[in-house]
Specification:
Layout lengths: L1 H22 L5 H4 L5 H7 L4 H9 L6 E4 L9 H8 L8 E4 L7 H10 L5 E3 L8 H12 L8 E3 L8 H11 L2 H10 L5 H6 L15 E2 L6 E2 L7 H9 L41 H6 L18 E3 L6 E3 H7 L8
Parallel strand pairs: 1-2, 2-3, 3-4
Antiparallel strand pairs: 5-6, 7-8
Helix pairs in contact: 5-6, 6-7, 7-8
């Protein structure tokens, strides 16, 4: 009887142990976590208690916080502080892409808790002010172990020339500025639209904006892939003097190839974006209006039943009923 009872207890203990082991996440999960986007991390932490504990206890996934769509629409100061606190003061990358609800106060609180941030990318954060950005950069650069490598501030309202100069004074010594200028790669309009903002330093730029040579405003200034313009750039010692190296407000650029587009070369598209003649010819057209869509607006195309072509949503709404087409 005692032996039988002992066997039952031993068997029961093994079953409980197996259940506990079965409930633990696989070790491979911890290799994957640092590569997951923020949205997936947050969703995973809500699945079950073992996953929640695994995500909470592993600090590596929280060292680089990158907030993009669709999270950016709901990201507030309170949520940012809660997420950033998971890094335990060791946050390295803070990329808030078009987070319109983040304020100077929220950004400052995160900087105070994480003074070792080396990438601060806040493009399109329209609730931030130039003074708030400068205050954050100043605090990061004055830390004894300062490691800030790049900032991205395109889309911050009311950024003036003097603000940009102040930021440069914190980030760059004369020697470092010369080194950066030698490593700079061209910034092409069509590539920038597809480029991940938090990898900005790969282009050799510490600050993404500069003074436009034409309008003298602080904006993104783009180079041109057109061969004639590149030849001018090579022939001139100062590449900023090329005729078309300026912001997109001062010269139109093709959404597909990024080249500067003169008035006689501009072609109509279904969307409001600019296309050059060469790209317009290559793109497929709407079967009704003979207008193409740029790469960003292929969602405006409606497939026609029994046809390999497509119809733009404007023509669809104007001429056709829903029975004739399918999305």
């Amino acid at each position: 009887m005692e032996t039988s009872q002992s066997c039952k207890e031993h068997s029961s203990g093994n079953e409980e142990q197996e259940q506990e082991v079965a409930g633990l996440p696989h070790e491979a999960l911890f290799l994957v976590l640092p590569y997951l986007p923020l949205l997936e991390l947050l969703v995973m932490s809500e699945v079950c208690m073992p996953l929640k504990d695994a995500v909470k206890k592993d600090i590596l996934p929280w060292l680089n916080i990158i907030v993009e769509r669709p999270l950016n629409l709901r990201f507030s100061d309170e949520i940012l502080m809660k997420v950033a606190s998971k890094a335990n003061g060791r946050l390295k990358t803070l990329a808030l892409i078009n987070c319109a609800r983040i304020t100077d106060n929220g950004l400052q609180r995160v900087i105070d808790e994480n003074p070792l941030i080396n990438k601060l990318h806040i493009p399109g954060c329209t609730a931030l002010t130039p003074d708030g950005v400068i205050s954050a950069v100043q605090k990061l650069c004055q830390h004894p172990h300062h490691s800030l490598k790049s900032i991205q501030i395109n889309g911050i309202y009311n950024m003036k020339k003097e603000h940009l100069e102040t930021l440069h004074s914190y980030l760059l010594t004369n020697q470092k500025q010369q080194q950066v200028q030698r490593k700079q790669k061209p910034v092409l309009y069509h590539n920038y639209s597809k480029f991940q903002g938090y990898r900005w330093e790969e282009l050799g730029r510490i600050v993404d904006v500069e003074i436009c040579p034409k309008c003298n405003e602080v904006r993104m200034v783009f180079d041109c892939p057109r061969e004639e313009c590149r030849r001018k750039k090579r022939d001139q010692q100062n590449c900023s003097l090329t005729d078309c190296r300026m912001c997109k407000f001062c010269i139109p650029r093709c959404e597909e190839c990024g080249r500067c587009v003169q008035l006689g070369e501009m072609e109509e598209a279904v969307c409001a974006d600019t296309l050059c003649s060469d790209c317009w010819i290559l793109l497929s057209k709407c079967s009704f209006c003979n207008k193409p869509c740029c790469w960003q607006h292929t969602n405006l195309q409606v497939s026609s039943v029994g046809s390999s072509g497509w119809i733009c949503c404007v023509c669809h709404d104007k001429f056709l009923s829903s029975d004739d087409v399918e999305h």
